[in-house]
Fold this sequence. Notes:
heterodimer; A: 91 residues; alpha/beta; Transcription Regulator spoIIAA; 4 helices; B: alpha+beta; Heat Shock Protein 90; 36% helix; 31% strand; globular
Amino acid sequence: MSKVGSLRSKGVIVDVTALDVLDSFASRTVRDLAYMIRLRGAETVIVGIQPEVAFAMVQLGITMEDVATALDLEEGLAYLDGKTQHGQRAL
Amino acid sequence: MASVPSEPESRKCVPVASDDDLVVARREGRILAEQLGFSTSEATLVATAISELARNIVSYARRGEIQVSLVHNGTKRGINIVARDEGPGILDINLAMREGYSTSGGFGIGLPGVKRIMDEFAIASDVGRGTTITITKWKR
């Protein structure tokens, strides 16, 4: 969060590839993080939600409203490039 | 729902008192689910349900335990999870089971969500004495 300020970040990528489970608490934490980053003036994109994790999230009833997601790091960067005018990146 | 516990070696009990314990409980559940021949998706559903219940223990009761075991009922085989704590208990179970209701600022989908992704769901709670939630998923 403070890095968004010190680096003047326009975009943040949250990579959850390593997570084998995203329960309601973890999903809420990720969503809240994206909301807070947006209040700091940057865009967040969540990348790497595994197929079975996505399946379980939907079955459980989790929604990630207004949070951008992309398949992987590459797609996430492409998304942020489109969203941030000068393509400034920060991880 | 006469689920009979099968081989005792296929039962694991994980004490739950911190977020690190969630990872252990999830892993034990996943190991048993895979032993039973569940698909990766089904094993992830089981691990997610365990995560929700273990998270509830840590947030509301501070400590408790998760027991995972293989069970059978006739020819059906499945995985059974018991989440037990001696925490404050649930004042109004109907309310706790309602979609969108939460006292912890969560999504409020924990318990109703777990019920939806499992085949069987039972909850017993005594205010001041604790809560026990028992869930089962059968192999298709």
